[in-house]
Design a protein that fits this description.
By secondary structure, this protein is mostly helical. The chain is built from 24 helices and no strands. Helix 11 packs antiparallel against helix 12.
């Protein structure tokens, strides 16, 4: 008995020692993470390296959550390319369940919204955690201005990206007041830059110049911000027609870009400089930078690379170098056709994967067979159990429910088949559209090739012939809506809009069908052979027209 008691006391003592050691280690881990947290704004790269060196598997759950929060923050500050939000979601869930009053819960909500924005999400899934963080922040007695800055800055950014410029302005101004309160020059700069772009987006150039002057005061003081200042100057001067000033800013931007390690798209920058030289009629420099832009292409699969080749062709034409203009123009058409083919093929593949009509028919057939089997079994059971009163009542009820469920299943599958049939109609129309545009581009390419071989050594009549072909092609592209006028059934299945009174014209129907396909303004402009700005105006007019007629305008949301 004495030995047993002695062993028990020893065991308790050992457990106490282990527990004390674990507590001490948890405290040490927590303190170390707090020290890293204090440096996270000023030295994010160092903190990131330190976090990678730690073994978070040995942490308690609380410290591991803290670790994951700091990792998310440093990833954001070191420009990590987020592909999912699972890590920050786990952090939010832990603090929400175990410690919602912890300040880290507020930070986790903010970065949940930030991570989703970095992934390109600008809908309610990014907005809601930031709004929840804002609600918590407003209830605090002594709120941290740096937290207030982050919330308002990113809420403003979401509204800016959704073109809600008035709301964006309101949030950015609140963010600026917090930045001034915390005396953070970086935050002050970033907010003024955001306010500048917001004003430029709504063509408020007077106010844009106001913020540009503030940004210019930072030039040379924040070396890592000089590039962004010069970019802002270039855009502003460009809108004012002051191309010489814009060119100076762009050349300085190029010098910075060639020296710094940041991943700057040099091809785009060379393209801009080329355009500036063309604007001041310095064509030799313009074509030099235009060709350099092509040489600097990194992503050969970028759908908009054709614009760089088109730029060279345009400049060559202005220099009366019709041979080179023709060569680059042919490349433009090849690249444009490839881009369109890939985009349309992708859409068609997605439709085929998602909506397989034959599979739908098989589902319906199987459902009908199941119904027949169930009905046969039900009849047999009724015959066998017909003489047993008490049991038969229960059986009839059970069978009745089975029959209703079976009928419901058949109806559900039939409805799915109907929807899939509609999608098949959509797929047919897309194929027609694709075929028409592709045939026209191929025909145009063949005409250009034949013209080049036959007349390449001739006088400027080559150019006149090219202009004639382009004019005819332009006319044909304008006639796409006429060539692919959808019937009423196709139009309704695509848009769910009834036009029994013939309110909509052909071009308006084309726009609505492309909107139903989630096409962007640029894409619609491509199909309609016009500019994105023209499409925005047409959409606004069309929405107003449909609203006045009491028609569904949900496609414009």
């Amino acid at each position: 008995m004495y030995k047993f008691l002695l062993r028990s006391i020893s065991l308790i003592f050992v457990l106490f020692i282990c527990f004390s050691c674990n507590v001490q280690r948890d405290n040490e881990d927590s303190l170390h993470l707090s020290e890293l947290d204090a440096m996270i704004d000023s030295r994010p790269n160092e903190v990131s390296d330190s976090l990678k060196a730690l073994h978070d598997n040995d942490f308690s759950r609380e410290n591991r959550t803290y670790y994951n929060l700091l990792k998310t923050i440093t990833d954001d500050k070191t420009y990590f390319n987020f592909t999912n939000d699972s890590l920050i979601n786990n952090v939010v869930n832990y603090y929400q369940t175990h410690d919602p009053k912890n300040s880290n819960y507020l930070r986790s909500l903010i970065y949940q919204g930030v991570v989703r924005m970095r992934m390109g999400v600008i809908d309610s899934t990014a907005f809601e955690p930031l709004k929840e963080a804002n609600n918590i922040f407003k209830e605090q007695i002594n709120p941290d201005p740096s937290i207030g800055y982050m919330i308002d800055y990113f809420l403003g950014t979401i509204h800016y990206k959704n073109r809600n410029h008035d709301l964006a302005d309101s949030y950015y101004l609140h963010a600026l007041s917090y930045a001034q309160l915390e005396k953070d020059s970086i935050h002050i700069f970033d907010t003024n830059l955001a306010l500048f772009w917001n004003e430029m987006s709504r063509n408020n150039f007077v106010k844009g110049k106001y913020y540009l002057d503030i940004l210019t005061d930072f030039y040379g003081e924040k070396v890592d911000k000089d590039y962004y200042i010069l970019n802002a100057q270039s855009v502003y001067y460009g809108t004012q027609g002051e191309f010489e000033k814009a060119l100076v800013s762009d050349k300085e931007r190029l010098n910075i870009a060639l020296l710094q390690k940041d991943d700057i798209d040099l091809s785009r920058l060379y393209f801009v400089i080329s355009d500036r030289y063309a604007s001041v009629n310095k064509m030799d420099s313009a074509i030099y930078y235009a060709k350099t832009a092509i040489e600097q292409i990194k992503d050969t699969n970028n759908a908009y690379n054709y614009l760089l080749f088109q730029n060279v062709a345009n400049i060559a034409e202005k220099r009366k170098d019709f041979v080179h203009a023709n060569d680059y123009r042919k490349q433009v058409f090849r690249m444009y056709e490839k881009s369109m083919r890939e985009r349309l093929d992708t859409q068609l593949i997605e439709l085929e994967k998602k909506y397989d009509l034959s599979e739908a028919e098989n589902i319906i057939l199987r459902s009908q067979q199941n119904l027949l089997i169930i009905a046969t079994i039900a009849l047999a059971l009724l015959l066998v159990l017909g003489g047993i009163v008490l049991v038969s009542t229960r059986v009839r009820k059970k069978i009745s429910i089975q029959l209703l469920n079976a009928e419901h299943e058949v109806k559900t599958q039939a409805l799915k088949a109907e929807l899939l049939t509609k999608e098949a109609i959509k797929r047919t129309w897309l194929n027609d559209l694709y075929g028409y545009v592709s045939d026209r581009l191929t025909s145009l390419q063949e005409q250009f090739s034949g013209l080049s071989q036959k007349f390449v050594s001739s006088q400027p009549k080559v150019y006149e012939a090219m202009e004639k072909i382009l004019h005819e092609t332009d006319t044909d592209l304008h006639d796409i809506p006429k060539s692919l006028i959808p019937d009423d059934q196709t139009f309704y299945s695509y848009t769910n809009i009834d036009d029994n009174d013939n309110v909509l014209n052909t071009n308006e129907k084309m726009i609505l069908m492309l909107l139903a396909c989630k096409a962007s303004n640029k894409q619609i402009a491509t199909f309609m052979n016009t500019s994105p700005e023209s499409i925005r105006v047409r959409k606004s007019q069309l929405k107003k027209k449909m609203s006045e007629k009491g028609m569904d305008v949900s496609l414009f949301v």
